[in-house]
Amino acid sequence: MALLGIDIGGTKLVLAVGDREGTPIASTRSPMSLSGDWHIDLETLVEAARTLLAEAGIGDEEPLERVGVSVPGPADPRDGILLTPPNLPNWQNVPIGAFLEERFGVGVRIENDANAAVLAEASFGAGRGLSDLVYLTMSTGVGGGVISAGRLVRGAFGSAGEPGHLPIESPGLDCACGLSGCLEAYVGGNAWRDRLRGEGGARGRVLELAGGDRAAVTPEHLVAAAREGDAFAREAFGRWLDHLARGIVPIVMLLEPKRIILGTIAVAAGEALCFAPLRARLAGLLWPHQFERLEVVPAALGEELPQRAGLAVALHGVPRTATP
Predict the structure, then answer these.
(1) Which domains does the chain show, CATH number per domain?
(2) Which candidate, 304, 244, 267, 255, places its Cα nearest to that of 147?
(3) Cβ-contact 72, 8 below 8 angstroms
(4) Minimal CA–CA distance to 3: which of 216, 315, 292?
(5) SS3 at position 70
(6) Which of 46, 49, 161, 323 has the fewest CB atoms within 10 Å, counting from its CB?
(7) Which stretch of DSSP H or E encloses residue 4?
(8) What is the pLDDT of residue 73?
(9) For residue 126, how far is the Cα from the chain centroid?
(10) Would you place residue 85 in the very low, low, confident or very high pLDDT band (cuts 50, 70, 90)?
(11) How deeply is 242 buried, as exposed, middle or buried, from its count of CB atoms within 10 A (0-12, 13-18, 19+)?
(12) 179 vs 23, 53, 246, CA distance in Å?
């Protein structure tokens, strides 16, 4: 018996075939085909998946057991519907679960990408063996996934676990979500990039690393300059850590996870620049007994995450049409 994992992004599609434990057997990555019609796009996806399954020897003698799909949220996992993904503008209210069940003849489970990521880290990465953990994506925006008492927290309608939109300032900066003061508006990659490119933004070594072109500056340039010891970059990264620490505190107060796993930007910055000073900030913001028991660590899966995410959903996602 085999599993099929699908990771759908705005620009990429990752397919993975795994065994019953979710260990990848074969995988492929390609640009996401966007025709303007989700029916056509999903048929293209299905054909690519069938090709991969055939190449992996999955068929009559070694049948497919289940499909797991990681999608850019928001999504309704119980009904298997992709709702209004901002990076897939022609995919509103797509019944992806029912569509793929009809094509493959097996059960299909879907989760938004942040929930899929926490399931993957819990199953295969930095969260193995833990029943209480939180994962923050820390990339273009700030997504999140929460596992509490061994179960993925989805909330009453499937949209729980959005730490990127906890308010950390009031009044605060406008957020792309339409609210203001959100954590994402301060530490999300896109928001941070826009501030660095604006008037009064990047300077010194950060600007040099971008070739002197302010419009080309990215958070990666700032992290590299901070690692070199550039004063502006160090100060700016310190403010980023201040805001991140403020966002983590309500997560700890509400959920008391054993471990908080940080991805992408934090992983790139590393222990000395990011994790050690972040822990020092948290020590002054949490009760001592909370801080002493809390672990803040980098994500472990790295480039493996997309193929692991879909397989983790196949293993642990909620079955479609399940009752709450």
Answers:
(1) 2-119+304-316 (3.30.420.40), 127-300 (3.30.420.40)
(2) 255
(3) yes
(4) 315
(5) strand
(6) 323
(7) strand 2-8
(8) 78
(9) 14
(10) confident
(11) middle
(12) 40, 43, 17
